[in-house]
Amino acid sequence: MFSHTNPLHQDVFQSVARFEGEVVAMTAALFGSKDKSSGGQICGNMTSGGTESILLAVKTSRDYMRMKKGITRPEMIIAESAHSAYDKAAQYFNIIVRRVPVDEEYKADVRKTKHCINKNTIMIIGSAPGFPHGVIDPIEALGALASSYDICFHVDLCLGGFVLPFARKLGYPIPPFDFSVKGVTSMSADVHKYGLGPKGTSVVLYRNHEIRKNQFVAVTEWTGGLYVSPTIAGSRPGGLIAGAWAAMMSLGEEGYLDNTKQIMEVSKRIQKGIQDIPELHIIGKPDMTVIAFGSNVVDIFEVNDIMSSKGWHLNALQKPNSLHICVTLQHVPAADNFLQDLKESVDTGESESRTDQWRACTNIWCCREDARQGSGAGLVSRVHGWKLLGHGLVT
Ligand SMILES: *Cc1c(COP(=O)(O)O)cnc(C)c1O
Prior knowledge:
Bound molecules: pyridoxal-5'-phosphate
Mean pLDDT: 91
Number of domains: 2
Helix content: 40-55%
Shape: globular
CATH class of the largest domain: Alpha Beta
CATH topology of the largest domain: Aspartate Aminotransferase, domain 2
Number of strands: 13
Radius of gyration: 22 Å
Strand order of the largest sheet: 1-7-6-5-4-2-3
């Protein structure tokens, strides 16, 4: 019904403008906007996804810091576990990125981050949780650091935004992650992940309008008339905004609480099951529903291939080589099958790995061929020198 609407023309499509406002307000309310400590001025926009939310938060922080502190050669500091969307933002917006290794718990290292701050630093980032290992960074400590240097601090809730507030309500031990934390200037949360909205929906939020106004583009001299656009896209899909609103309204707090309870419980079960496989170990201490695991005994990417042949699609990670599963409602009835298949794959991988040492090198070429055919994602499994691939993936 809303598929031909466009919030660029707010006056024409008033209900879509209202849907966007309500999605933003409902999301903000999950992250402490009603709390006194938030300052009561949280504002934001809907975007096409986590990447656009992050691009906007970075661009806004850059321009806010230029306005406020006169920084013209911007740098940002991110943990190695932060999403690659920050590299994308840095490449698009001419910002130097300093990537800092994570600490022994796979969290952003506050001390090392502090070391990297200089007069050109515009922002730091914390993920709640990070995509690779599902571990929440020390948001309070990073917030204190950011506010002591008067720089921006973005909290990446793309993955955790529609789980953590509910997990906390259910009694899980979730450390502070929202606008109640001093120093947080912006946040991103994906409605199209655990918010269960249609693909192409996310929210970017700011502490106040003073910061957010740096996100907008206003052109006054165009022959096409006065043009004001809040996000990267000009025309925007009203249908997706309506879809996100419908998803949130139909689930409601009860729906999200119920979903979160199920996926948190099954995540704990899967975690326990992985721990019971002696060849595997969990990476870090998962705070939510992403569980990363590796092995000192079997080639974990070989295990991934065998799991693929059984119909499972796991993400391959590096530094250290590992896999992760992002647990969703689909896994609730399938957890036992998953663990059974994983155990079998480890056993098979263990016996096979003794015989085929030569494979790793030939696979680089398989990957390059795959990449040319456009299936860039998820093909990296067995290649050990990923750096070599960077070039091949974009040619
Ligand atoms: C998914 C994700 C992103 C990027 O979001 P897209 O919707 O894929 O653009 C950024 N950060 C984290 C932590 C994520 O999980």
